[in-house]
Write a structure and sequence with these properties.
The complex is a heterodimer.
Chain A (H helix, E strand, L loop, with lengths): L5 H24 L7 H18 L2 H7 L4 H21 L9 E6 L3 E6 L1 H26 L1
Antiparallel strand pairs in A: 1-2
Helix pairs in contact in A: 1-2, 2-5, 4-5
Chain B lengths: L7 H15 L4 H29 L2 E4 L10 E4 L1 H24 L2 H5 L2 H17 L3 H20 L4 H32 L4 H11 L3 H18 L7 H6 L3 H26 L7 H22 L3 H22 L2 H32 L10 H4 L1 H15 L6 H15 L2 H26 L15 H19 L1 H16 L1 H9 L3
Antiparallel strand pairs in B: 1-2
Helix pairs in contact in B: 1-2, 1-5, 2-3, 2-5, 3-5, 3-11, 3-14, 3-19, 3-20, 5-6, 5-11, 6-7, 6-11, 7-9, 8-21, 9-11, 11-13, 11-14, 12-13, 12-18, 13-14, 13-17, 13-18, 14-16, 14-17, 14-19, 14-20, 16-18, 16-19, 17-18
The chains are: A mainly alpha, B mainly alpha.
Chain lengths: 140, 494
């Protein structure tokens, strides 16, 4: 059966950008407000899943040549490394430092190593969720 | 802050496991790395054990958050002894896996998941936070779900489905119990919990919550609720089954000891009586199971159940001697159960049969295999030069002190039944007429036997070297008996 999914594809092209922006917003909001790496990762993977649904898997994989299993492993590695590095400097495991700098236009800007940990979490979540969805879709 | 070493028995296997995912095509490198990581973990736990003897219980506040607000790892002798034993057993099982598990498993990340399993097990031993214990349990269980079903044979899938469902249910009860406890006392740090429960004098509400924990850990450890165990442990490949038999239930046993000596120890007439009753039922049921089956792997699995009952007799008696005995027996059981699973798997691989009445006269074909089985059997039954002896004697002493004579009788009758169940295997499979002629016997590779030989040496060394181990075990039992030591170690200001 050939389906006509022009509308879905058109909307997806726009909506994916909104979802991705929301993911980035949630990722950085997580520092002080609800949000963070895990939630951002879930939202990111929902964008990918929408793409896989609207277009076919092969096209998306061609445009986005990521091995999602490796993505998950890279994320986990990043997260755990950000925990191990402080121990090399004599701090407790998973100790995080934060730097507050004043930038001319933006104002007060906080930079913390926790961002690395959260980025690792986000990557791991994206990798795992997309791998699960893709494996389920292959079985049918 | 040198206590950072305390997180590495968990972090090192996790890190290695992640690296192994990247190194998927390089099987030889994977083997070397996984072995190095496990040996490194073992070495670290020895160093930490020495440090505990020198300067008391070690703690590390993760991320620098002070207790009771942050999550922390606590290393006392009990936890570290188990970390050490778990590393040794994993190393031996890896050695067996190298030569038996086959390329299909090796390419599907089996070594990575063994690392994650070890990480979860070590994390459960070391954590000082009840919610973190739940998380470590989940890490261990997720790895074990994959290891149990990897390979995808019909029997494996059927058994692992049961295993997954039963564990999701028990994890859920665990979570609910944690939520109740948090609602009741407002903390989940184990030392802080211990203080607050002591302050309130363990109200009936808290005792009720403790019964929920008892159910959860019984499911994990196979105390009374062991119906899932023989099936699950007899389906996966031998090396994996040995790892499960040696480690998984022991984590449940550990959690039971921790929770009922550190947190809920004020109403022993309720909680410890129930543990005693459940231990008795487990001993009886496990013995019946072990004798009723003809399948070697099922018999070995039921022996795991009996051992859990036996250790719980020590917890029910809860005297110093009984706890020491249980700790000795826990260490001993991890080694010997791994040995027994490896031997049973090797017997099945050699003969192609799984029932002992279909094998006969193996000792003529494979003398060393037969004698190793003999050693394992004597050790489990508690014959003196081997490691089971000291644990049984001390548990016996403890039950007499506590006056629980029924448990004493059941524990020792079950020992005889253990001996009988294995003796039946030995008599039928190893003695008797040799069916396999010398021409058609399968060659027994050295690499199949070396792991079992190592474990057999381990049980002899543990039996003869009790003197060396004694100070560590006494210290471990001491901390279990005096929760104040644990609390003070956690809350000492740096």
């Amino acid at each position: 059966m050939k389906t006509n999914d022009v509308i879905l594809q058109m909307i997806t092209k726009i909506v994916v950008f909104i979802i991705l922006t929301l993911a980035v917003y949630l990722f950085f909001a997580g520092h002080h407000n609800p949000g963070g790496g895990f939630i951002a990762g879930l939202v990111l993977s929902s964008a990918f899943v929408l793409l896989f649904l609207a277009f076919d898997t092969e096209t998306i994989i061609k445009g986005l040549p990521l091995n999602f299993k490796v993505t998950a492993a890279v994320g986990a590695l990043l997260a755990i490394s950000s925990g191990i590095v402080p121990t090399l400097f004599g701090h407790p495991f998973l100790n995080m430092v934060m730097l507050t700098i004043n930038l001319p236009l933006i104002g007060k800007f906080e930079l913390g190593t926790i961002v690395l940990f959260e980025a690792g979490v986000a990557l791991a979540v994206v990798g795992v969720v997309v791998t699960i969805i893709l494996s389920i879709s292959e079985d049918v | 802050m040198m206590n950072n070493v305390l997180v590495f028995p968990m972090v090192l296997p996790v890190l290695t496991g992640i690296l192994l995912i990247f190194l998927r095509p390089y099987i030889r490198l994977q083997r070397w790395l996984s072995m190095l990581s496990v040996l490194g973990t073992g070495a670290m736990s020895i160093i930490l054990l020495q440090r505990v003897q020198a300067s008391g219980i070690l703690t590390i506040d993760i991320g620098g958050w002070q207790p009771p607000f942050g999550i922390l790892f606590v290393g006392d002798s009990f936890a570290l002894l188990l970390v050490l034993t778990a590393s040794i057993v994993t190393a031996v099982c890896l050695l067996y896996a190298f030569s038996t598990i086959g390329p299909a498993h090796e390419q599907m990340h089996v070594y990575a998941f063994i690392q994650f399993l070890l990480a979860g097990v070590n994390g459960s031993f070391l954590t000082g936070d009840l919610f973190n214990l739940f998380v470590c349990f989940e890490v261990m269980l997720l790895a074990s779900y994959i290891l149990a079903s990897l390979g995808g044979k019909r029997k494996q899938l059927r058994e692992s489905l049961k295993y997954v469902i039963i564990n999701i249910l028990s994890s859920w009860i665990f979570l609910v119990a944690i939520a109740y406890l948090y609602g009741a006392v407002g903390t989940l740090n184990m030392a802080h919990l211990s203080e607050r429960i002591a302050e309130s004098g363990q109200t009936p509400l808290l005792t009720t919550i403790s019964m929920l924990f008892l159910i959860v850990f019984s499911l994990k450890a196979g105390l009374v609720l062991y119906f899932w165990l023989p099936g699950t442990y007899s389906a996966p490949p031998t090396a994996i089954a040995a790892l499960f038999g040696a480690l998984l239930t022991k984590v449940g046993v550990y959690a039971m000891f921790r929770v009922f000596t550190l947190l809920f120890y004020h109403e022993p007439s309720i909680t410890h009586t129930w543990i005693g009753i459940m231990a008795a039922i487990t001993l009886i049921g496990g013995s019946i199971g072990a004798i009723s089956s003809k399948d070697v792997r099922v018999i070995v699995s039921y022996n795991v159940v009996i051992a859990v009952g036996f250790m719980m007799v020590g917890l029910a008696a809860a005297t110093s001697a009984a706890l020491e005995g249980s700790i000795y027996y826990l260490i001993h059981d991890m080694l010997v159960k791994a040995l027994l699973f490896l031997l049973a798997g090797t017997m099945i691989a050699l003969t192609g049969k799984s029932k002992f009445n279909e094998m006969s006269g193996l000792i003529r074909n494979y003398p060393l295999l037969g004698w190793l089985f003999f050693i394992g059997m004597l050790s489990l039954a508690g014959i003196p030069p081997f490691s089971g002896f000291i644990g049984k004697v001390l548990i016996g002493k403890g039950t007499i002190e506590a006056g629980t004579y029924i448990l004493l009788a059941l524990a020792f009758v079950s020992s005889i039944l253990v001996l009988y169940s294995l003796l039946r295997v030995f008599r039928n499979a190893f003695w008797g007429e040799t069916v396999i002629s010398l021409e058609e016997e399968k060659p027994l590779k050295k690499s199949w036997l070396v792991p079992s030989v190592l474990l057999a040496i381990g049980t002899i060394v543990l039996g003869l070297g009790v003197e060396v181990l004694a100070p560590y075990v006494q210290d471990a039992a001491n901390v279990l008996l005096q929760p104040k030591l644990y609390i003070d170690a956690v809350f000492q200001s740096k």
